[in-house]
Amino acid sequence: MSTTTLAVLVPLLPFLGAVAGLLLGRTAPGFVRPLAILPTLTAAVLAVTVAVRQGGGQPISTATELTPTGSVPIDLSLYIDGFAALVAVLVGVVATCVQLYSTAYLREDPRYPSYAGLVSLFTSAMLLVVYSGDLMVLLVGWEVMGICSYFLVGHYWETEAARSASLKAFLVTKLGDVPFLIGLFALATDAGSFRITKILGTVAAGGLDHPTLIALLLLAGVAGKSAQFPLHTWLPDAMAGPTPVSALIHAATMVAAGVYFIARLLPVFAASAAALVVMAVMAAVTMVGSGLAALAQDDIKRVLAYSTIGQLAYMTGALAVADRSAAVFHLLSHGAFKALLFLGAGVIIHAAGTNSLAAMSRMDGLAKRIPDAFWTMTIALLALAAIPPFAGFFSKEAVLVAAEQAATGHSDAAPAAAGWLVLAAGVLTALLTAAYAARLWLMAFRGRGAAAPDHGKEPFAMTGVLWLLAVPSVAFGLAADPLADWFDGRALTPTLATSVLGTGAAVIGAMLTYALWQRATAKAATAPAAGPARAATAAEEPAAVAAAVSAATAAAESAAETPEVAEVTHEHPAVPAGPAADPARALLGPLHRHAAAGFHLDAVYDRLFVRPVRAAARLVGFLDREVVDTYVRGAGTGTRLLGGLVRRAQTGNVQSYLSALLAGAVVLAIATAVLANVNAGS
């Protein structure tokens, strides 16, 4: 079978599995799990085969005209280079792991058939984006991912949180898609084609008339899809969906689609130095802001959500200095260890009965209850913190090396300003990343207090997947040299300067967090337990301590009532009482409250956009009701009155009609005579 045929089957098989699963979900539920796993697993195997055959050599390109348009043609085409081949492998492997994991995680969920079908459809759409060689066909996969995300995030639609989160995710990403679509049409107009190969040829020949405008329009869509500032606010709220959804959509696929799109069309963005600087600013702000926000979150999934935003900003930063090899390398590495982190978080939630880190910090022995999750999460957090020799160290160092080369003038592809921005923000974010990774590990696995609930051993479908994903989290960084051909033949080895900067910052962040955690633990051990007596004496204690206790308790109670906890736990354990040992409060100080609220960007957007739009809608409604409808009602009322007057004249009496006719004739005769006299006198 030819490589082209195998490549066509890669997105087609999950699509067929999705259709079959959605159709047979109610009538033949026994087929749902095989239809969810087998097509996705086969697609992953075929993706590996395509990657091996492609071998990092010449891109595989083929096309057939999809439909005549009369102007710019739309082709059904494939364009598979080394980057596309590797990203497709990542999508297939992670999607297979998520489908396997979900069979146990959602085994009692009555809506599992539709969930599995939507995950397969989503996988097919992402693979279409990866392999597509035509931007219009890519747009189809791009939008199908958006609608699947809407349904999957809103899986627990009975709750207000899930409904609001799914709607917010859909609307915010659509807000970016509007300029994105305009940018696609502008790009195709300048290039005369939607084909990626022809567009790249036009860019190489200097044929783009509006490179900055096109790049900025496309960047708006990327910011929405890849959750970059200022369109990142939907991703933390999207954690209201099931945890396996977060592992697939919010780690390895949809949020990475924007980064992959820029990497695919990097010459278009590199044609404008202004666009690269804007991209660097966006990446720097997103990196630092998301790192601070992650450090202040109590919900374990929201920590990982903000972490994802920051790591995507690393990739965007690499693209801002025109190095797509480093960006895609970090995309692949991050996809593996972040999927592991989300799935491991699902095991923790399943065992602890809560999403709250504050509640977990008051549980003893959670690590012993779930040893598989403990060890694999430790591996993934080390990779996230970029500690050598784990995968995250090599991929993050590749980004810092690219930024350093641009900053010091060793690369002419990007402005030096972009390099300095990405380098400075990257080093600072390395410190913040290690800090919130250490905080998560300490609060989740080194809690002190009541014994953690024991629900027995977790299913093998969940723990086995964790160990499978732990392999690339450890070893993928070492594969950079063997896979150099797939990365444009570029070496992705760290340099001494960036290694010292990045690793040193990470070590400082982790050690500082550990020291502050020890101090917070000592204070929490001496503080009285929360309860009626605690409430009575709260006024006598410092306001900061009382506020910390009440906030931590409220957060724990809120997290314990999330719909996912109700879905996957056997019973709700009582939220342990007492203050939480949280080092983030001391680390962030007065900034903690603002970071926990995402720096109030939702409130800012509400005041700047939502309220004015609602006020304008109310004004339009008033004008429609009181002005336009008044004219409509007036026209109807006038017609009724005129009809009433005419109706009174219709008596049916012939003598009345003749009398009226005679009177009218007399009036006309008199009027004629008067007018004749007037005319004769003049």
TrEMBL record:
PANTHER family in the record: NADH-UBIQUINONE OXIDOREDUCTASE CHAIN 5 (PTHR42829:SF2)
InterPro entries: NADHpl_OxRdtase_5_subgr (IPR018393), ND/Mrp_TM (IPR001750), NU5C-like (IPR003945), Proton_antipo_N (IPR001516)
Keywords attached to this entry: Membrane, Transmembrane, Transmembrane helix
Name listed for the protein in its UniProt record: NADH dehydrogenase
Organism field: Streptomyces amritsarensis
Membrane topology: Multi-pass membrane protein
Main location: membrane
Subcellular location: Endomembrane system; Membrane
Domain (NADH:quinone oxidoreductase/Mrp antiporter transmembrane) ranges: 132-406
Transmembrane segments: 6-24, 36-56, 76-100, 112-131, 137-157, 169-187, 199-224, 245-263, 269-296, 303-322, 328-352, 373-394, 414-438, 459-480, 492-517, 657-676
Record-annotated NADH-Ubiquinone oxidoreductase (complex I) chain 5 N-terminal domain positions: 68-115
